[in-house]
Amino acid sequence: MKLDIAPQKTHHGRNIKRLREMLGIKQEAIAIDLDITQQSVSELEQKEFIDDSTLKKVAKTLNVPIDAIKNMNDEATFNYINTFNDKVESSFLNNPINCAFNPIDKIVELYNEKEALYERMLKEKDELLEKLLNK
Predict the structure, then answer these.
(1) Are 69 and 16 in contact (CB under 8 A)?
(2) pTM of the shown model
(3) Cβ-based neighbour number of residue 54 at 10 Å
(4) Average of per-residue pLDDT values in the chain
(5) Which residues, in sequence order, are CB contacts of 64 under 8 Å at separation 6+?
(6) Domain 12-99 has CATH 1.10.260.40
(7) Using an 8 Å Cβ cutoff, are 3 and 63 in contact?
(8) DSSP character for 45?
(9) pLDDT tens digit string along 8-28?
(10) 74-87 and 12-23 helices, crossing angle to 10°
(11) Within a 10 A sphere around the Cβ of 85, how many other Cβ atoms?
């Protein structure tokens, strides 16, 4: 009796989710680094196939080789993470957001920009009202 065992199909999104969870990274952190929404990251994790350019960005964000996302099954992913954490001196787990900026600073910056915009709008409104009253 011959058993045909088909090779397990790779699901890029599922592998991203597994790697992300094993590294203790939240979807929000990936979203910030990729400049997309958390919902977009969730949708990405549902896709069976993801184009190479997107995979490269995600792999860079997770600090893993693109092959880890493309080719890994459950056991290989687990083994990779264990090996990865043993070999890396400054573990990615100590810095879960691999950003070129501090997310808190970015939030404060955006808040300040909105506040400045609001102030400019109020000033323009006052100037316009003054012009209308002077006519």
Answers:
(1) yes
(2) 0.52
(3) 16
(4) 79
(5) 19, 80, 84
(6) yes
(7) no
(8) T
(9) 678 899 999 988 988 889 999
(10) 40
(11) 13
